Amino acid sequence: MSQHIAFIGAGNMSRAIYGGLIRSGYPASQITATSPELDVLQTQQNTYGIHTTTDNLLATTKADVLVLAVKPQILKMVCEEIAPVVKNRKAPPLIISIAAGIECNAISKWLGVEAPIVRCMPNTPALIGVGASGLFANRFVSDQQKDAAEQLMGAVGIAEWVTEEPLLNAVTAVSGSAPAYFFLMLNAMQQAAIQQGLSADSARKLAQQTALGAAKMAIDSTESLTRLMQNVMSPQGSTEQAILSLQSNEFSEAIEAAMNACKARAEAMQKEFGG
């Protein structure tokens, strides 16, 4: 029998995950979502056929897997609310937290019990089934529970484990926040193409399809990214000139600086919200 999964919070990421699970064959009858907003719950029940409730304690009582999908600023309040139920159970459920910046030790402290906790850093492409998530498990998580967490996030893309919790900040830099980097580059490419005379519609379609194709080639190819780049270039050709221009303007250094700034902010958020 499938495990019962309860989502505390029925926002976009929760909907992406349980929507993906249901599309992959997971029974909707084994999923519960909570929200203080009745209209949200009614919509989710009608759309997905899942159970819904405004009662976080009730959802926690039924859950084999409990997904904490609330904003970091309110996670402490939610954990302290459900703590009596978690502590009174014979064995605590597997806790999966997608709240950025809150460490496992803080969650355990707020719950008042040493629970099996998996922290997850997803990204927004999970909303369309092509997400990339980083996962970290504390020492109380069993191999079976790791498999359950991987199945959960695998329903909306790929999931990669890290062995040390601080590495989730690097995951934030390379995937969690990174869709925005590509949107910024796409926008710059589109604006440059418009300046060169293309229509806005053509510039958008060509840039977006090129990004899609390049990503697909990188995923499917056994060749290195350097080799794939060189395959597009010919000596003294137009592509070579574009790459030389990017390199002379310190493109790689700018990306590294951006990722370092992202990681530093993620580390700061842990201190802000994890007390």
TrEMBL record:
<feature type="domain" description="Pyrroline-5-carboxylate reductase catalytic N-terminal">
    <location>
        <begin position="5"/>
        <end position="101"/>
    </location>
</feature>
<dbReference type="Pfam" id="PF03807">
    <property type="entry name" value="F420_oxidored"/>
</dbReference>
<dbReference type="InterPro" id="IPR036291">
    <property type="entry name" value="NAD(P)-bd_dom_sf"/>
</dbReference>
<protein>
    <recommendedName>
        <fullName>Pyrroline-5-carboxylate reductase</fullName>
        <ecNumber>1.5.1.2</ecNumber>
    </recommendedName>
</protein>
<keyword id="KW-0521">NADP</keyword>
<dbReference type="InterPro" id="IPR008927">
    <property type="entry name" value="6-PGluconate_DH-like_C_sf"/>
</dbReference>
<dbReference type="Pfam" id="PF14748">
    <property type="entry name" value="P5CR_dimer"/>
</dbReference>
<keyword id="KW-0028">Amino-acid biosynthesis</keyword>
<feature type="domain" description="Pyrroline-5-carboxylate reductase dimerisation">
    <location>
        <begin position="165"/>
        <end position="269"/>
    </location>
</feature>
<dbReference type="InterPro" id="IPR029036">
    <property type="entry name" value="P5CR_dimer"/>
</dbReference>
<keyword id="KW-0641">Proline biosynthesis</keyword>
<keyword id="KW-0560">Oxidoreductase</keyword>
<dbReference type="GO" id="GO:0004735">
    <property type="term" value="F:pyrroline-5-carboxylate reductase activity"/>
</dbReference>
<comment type="pathway">
    <text>Amino-acid biosynthesis; L-proline biosynthesis; L-proline from L-glutamate 5-semialdehyde: step 1/1.</text>
</comment>
<comment type="function">
    <text>Catalyzes the reduction of 1-pyrroline-5-carboxylate (PCA) to L-proline.</text>
</comment>
<dbReference type="InterPro" id="IPR000304">
    <property type="entry name" value="Pyrroline-COOH_reductase"/>
</dbReference>
<dbReference type="InterPro" id="IPR028939">
    <property type="entry name" value="P5C_Rdtase_cat_N"/>
</dbReference>
<comment type="similarity">
    <text>Belongs to the pyrroline-5-carboxylate reductase family.</text>
</comment>
<keyword id="KW-0963">Cytoplasm</keyword>
